[in-house]
Amino acid sequence: MAKKIDLKDIVQDAFDASIQQISGYDAAFLYAESPTSPMHVATLNIVEGSLKYEDFKEIVASKLHLIPKFRQRLLSVPMNLDYPYWVDDPNFDLDLHLNRMKLPDPSNWKTLRDLTSSLFSSPLDLRRPLWSVHFIEGIDEIAQVPKGSVAIVTKVHHVMIDGSSGVGLLGVLYDSDADGKKKKRTKPKPFNPEPLPDELSLLLKSGYGFLKNPFKIPKTVTETVYSFIKSKAASKLSIQKEFSSTKFPVPITIFNGSISAKRTWGTAILSFDRINSLRKVMGGSINDMILVICAGAIRRYLIEREKLPLHPLVANVPISIRNENSSDMNNQIANMMIQLATHIEDPLERLEYIQEQTMLGKSRHNTLGAKTLAKMADVVPFGLANLAAGLYSKYNIKDLHRPPFNVTITNVPGPRGLLYLNGHKVVSIFGLTPVVDGFGLIIAAFSYNGQVSITTTSDAKTMPDADVFSRYIRESANELEDLIKNLGKSKTSSKEVKKVKSKSTPFFTALKKYLKDNPKDVKAYKGVYQMQVGLGDTTNGWEIDLTKSVATVKKLKNLDPKLLVEIEDENLFALYKGKLILEELKIQGRIKITGSAASKTKFMNLLTAFLER
């Protein structure tokens, strides 16, 4: 007898708010999946000492309830008429996601790298929760790693997380202190999965979403047009107008062909303090230094193969638009395009060129704004986008046009201190990222415990010698460091003759006048805000005191690190003159605010009100 259809249950499922649909941006990673391009990210964590597999499994089981998506899978809408939904997996079994193995002999770094490449090359099962962990025992011959240590390779589909939420994931699975063995471990919470919704209810739910917001597409288009016009007006006031499309060609390189299914990767480990000291001499950001180091390695790699194009390579640089209070694991990223100055031989001139590019930031490539693009992604019908991605790969459409960029370079700040697993120290963390047809090279920088691991992911066809490229990254960093140190010495000697003058002093003068003329804002943004303005080797301290009826803005020598706003002098001056946008500086990490969430919000509102005066 056929199963009786219960319309009441179907309607109830359709209006169930607990069933969440993936966003258009997340869906992009799903429909980019192909036999040669599994779209997952991975981390290789080396854990010191003989961690027992049974203890590791127990830890994962006790924390699964903190990561709901680890027990959910995707359920497609019939005929792919809409984006899939996250639903509880009624067949979830932890043993299907944990894999135990021993590192083959010789148990050294090359063997571990080859094994990790093999594991990373295989796709995740899209019919199950989209993650897996390989627990690799018997690491005995890696320098500076104690004999008997273990490696943990974690794969998570990119539809679930971006780089920033991946860092949050580390905080769930690992401890920040070495007392993990002594702590009483919580018992795994029972998993009572919700029944799978009926296909008809998914269609109703998608239809209801459209009826609820039938003007979603025209509304998004309107907002897009408004943002475009606004950005065009802003471009007339900034140097970004110098970079028209005719002056910004993207060359075709060996990194932009078809890829193979086998992944290759290598990593270079640099000292964060060394990179930061170079940044202090040259100004700009940590991201600028990483970009110029990678650009040097790319230039050398292509020169040795006689494949360096005349025009500079263009990097896609993902930037997080994640709100610091956001707990969602989904992707919240935007992108900016940066010319890597690979046509310039001198590393210092290359750095200056790249710094100018990043100052323009997303205003050149991403003039619509990150949030607008995220909304646009949700407008694209899932089935149409899926079809487009498949046709792009199947018919090699990439060969019919120039690539929009040549390489992706991403920088994700990780934990500053050590992480532990059941009392065992996590020695190193390396991040591997997916590559696709037309974009066969991605470089991921990840900072952890005073180190920055710059990991290159490619494929056997595009870059079979990724370990050689990683050596070029180290040598590029050393070359840049030598040049900047020599430059720093000359700066020090010239500084004795001439004192550096701040460009941004007019900002504080104008702010003082603004607060005097707007006593309501003094009351609304009550508090004490201290700013540290970078001037190369020195800094200026300022205090903005809004605790009294009359605000005071004055220089201050001793600043409170618990409530501090840090920004480079040239960036503050450009912000004051309207050549940079506050949101850009915040997204790019060029303005750093330390303090409570309330004080951060009040200061940003004050700064916004002043700049829009």
TrEMBL record:
Keywords: Acyltransferase, Glycerol metabolism, Lipid biosynthesis, Lipid metabolism, Transferase. Its EC number is 2.3.1.20. One of its GO terms (biological process) is glycerol metabolic process. Residues 23-290 form the O-acyltransferase WSD1-like N-terminal domain. The keyword Nucleus does not apply. GO terms for cellular component: plasma membrane. Residues 331-480 form the O-acyltransferase WSD1 C-terminal domain. Pathway: Glycerolipid metabolism; triacylglycerol biosynthesis; Lipid metabolism. It catalyses: an acyl-CoA + a 1,2-diacyl-sn-glycerol = a triacyl-sn-glycerol + CoA. Residues 512-607 form the SCP2 domain. GO terms for molecular function: diacylglycerol O-acyltransferase activity. Gene3D superfamilies: SCP2 sterol-binding domain. Belongs to the long-chain O-acyltransferase family. This is diacylglycerol O-acyltransferase.
